[in-house]
Amino acid sequence: MVSTLAERRTRGGGRANDRVVNYNIAKDIVLWRRRTQSATILIASTATWVLMQVYQFKFITLFSWLAIFLLASSFLCANMLRLLGKEPPSLSGFEMTEESAMQMAHTIKACSEEGIRLMFRLTTEEGWPLFLGLVAGLWSLSYIASKMDFLTFLYMGIIVSTTVPVIYVKNENRIKSLVEWLKAKSKRSYEIFDERAIQKIKTRVINESEMKKQNDEKKAE
């Protein structure tokens, strides 16, 4: 019994560590701390979008050309190394280990469990604000997606996710001060509008209701 509990705690700790590692990797890529991976994702997505949207290539065609390029490159490199009498490079770094497969499975399972918890959380009274926010977000997403095709929508998402966070981090103080200034400005504008329009409307409605009440009293007399 004790050993079983210890194993569960160990697995839970390992899963938490895996989540932290995966989160840190994604964060580093988004914030351009891993410049090679970030640039590769941006260049590959841009090239794919240009070829498929501008030049109207099909996905299978691009996939076939990419596979031909990789096969030809590996064939030429292997033959060049053999002619020069060198050993081919080790491909152990490209192999998926059992640990990597388990980490991927744990990540998928954790995301699925979190989605199920979110669905149950939305059914409670406390989850109403989250439910309304989620519905509004999904509706906005569907409206934006209706104005463009899926590939363009996906490409725009990649561009935004690889540019907006790093811009925000670099200009965080300026953006925060601008947001505070906008909040103060909007609050002042609302106060002016409330004073000049809403209060006058309220006063007029109250006066009209009082005059109507007085007229009714006079008629009753």
From TrEMBL:
| Entry's Gene Ontology cellular component terms | endoplasmic reticulum membrane
* Chain ranges of the Reticulon domain: 26-221
Membrane topology annotation: Multi-pass membrane protein
Q: Name one GO biological process term.
A: response to bacterium
Cell location: Endoplasmic reticulum membrane
Q: Which residues form a coiled coil?
A: none
Keyword Membrane attached: yes
Q: Which UniProt keywords are present, listed alphabetically? A: Endoplasmic reticulum, Membrane, Transmembrane, Transmembrane helix
- Could you list the residue ranges that cross the membrane? 39-56, 62-81, 127-144, 150-169
Pfam families to which the protein is assigned, alphabetical: Reticulon
Q: What is its main location?
A: endoplasmic reticulum
Name of the featured protein: Reticulon-like protein
Origin organism is Senna tora
